[in-house]
Amino acid sequence: MPQLNPNPWFFIMLTSWLTFSLIIQPKLLAFTSINQPLNKTLTTTKATPWPWPWT
Fold first, then answer.
1. Which residue among 1, 24, 46, 53 has its CA within the 20 to 30 Å range from the CA of 7?
2. Cβ neighbours of residue 20 under 8 Å, at least 6 residues apart?
3. Residue 49's Cα: distance from chain center in Å?
4. Per-residue pLDDT at 2
């Protein structure tokens, strides 16, 4: 059964993880967002009851 032979697949998996970890991930982490998050104060709104006509 060739699926149980880890020889070619282990190298492919190791190469792909090293590529992601050493090349792609630092480039993604260096990306800065254009719109920085703002510290907004929370405003509480007073809930007014709806005047139902059938009550």
1. 24
2. none
3. 39
4. 59
